[in-house]
Design brief:
It is built from 10 helices and 13 strands. It is an alpha/beta fold. The chain has a single domain, classed as Rossmann fold (3-Layer(aba) Sandwich). The strands form 3 sheets. Strands 6-7-3-8-2-9-10-13 form an 8-stranded mixed beta sheet, sandwiched between helices. Strands 1-4-5 form a 3-stranded antiparallel beta sheet, with no helix packed on it. Helix 2 crosses helix 10, helix 4 packs across helix 5 and helix 6 packs parallel to helix 7.
Amino acid sequence: MLRVERKGPSIRMPPVVMDQRKQAALEKLKNVKYVVAITSGKGGVGKSFIASNLALTMRILGYEVGLMDIDFHGPSTPKMLGIRGQRLIALSGGIQPAQGPLGLKVMSLDFLLEDDDTPVIWRGPIKTTAIFQFITDVSWGNLDFLVIDMPPGTGDEAITVAQEIPKIDGVIFVTIPSEVSVLVVGRSITFYKRLGRKPIGIIENMSSFYCPDSGKTYRVFGKGSGKTLSEKYGIPLLAEIPLDPRIGEANDEGRPYVLAYPESPVTKSLIEAAKKITDILNSSRNEDTEETA
């Protein structure tokens, strides 16, 4: 049994041509029913919180789920899930993903960094190699969903996922209620559409804050951007996630929010979003089947 050494973020992969890498990825993803990318136009909107807790929500609903964190310069899902420090083990069938809460399978560069101060100094080609290795060299097994936590924006990782990965069933866009977010998320939506990737829907995070003292709800960041983006681009608004101070506390303490606060409005909104995502993907799959019949 071989242990993966934690000596910095070096990813080694045999020099194969791109077509061979695509074919290897396609073979591995045959065991995955749906591959879903979660992205945002800009950082600081809670994308990784949504990705990690949405993946856990799908586990709560009974699905087999993997979470692939390719936010290489800011890998944070292991911290939010409380599984930092796990050592990855390589067996004959591939690298075993870390085990998250409820049996969630997790792969992140955070597990391979030597310490908290280790920077990731990578250009595009290395990122592309790492993305393929996260798919082909990891023993994901049979999954209903492989959730990809993307970095914000439309840089190298987004181009690789949109153009090179042979199976992406849809993209979810995370925004916050601000005009700035509308602008950058709009560009991200257009990016994925032009590259032939289907937008599944929009999640508006930090939508509003309910003050228990006054009984009033406040739009801290301004008017909702989720509805604006939904109407402009014809994409479903999956959820409006309210602000909850306990989110930051749970993230910092490594306690998955949806498990710590199962009855909260945030968790209930994520459960509804997960159900909508499943319905949209199943409907799309049925339509494709009917067209090819």
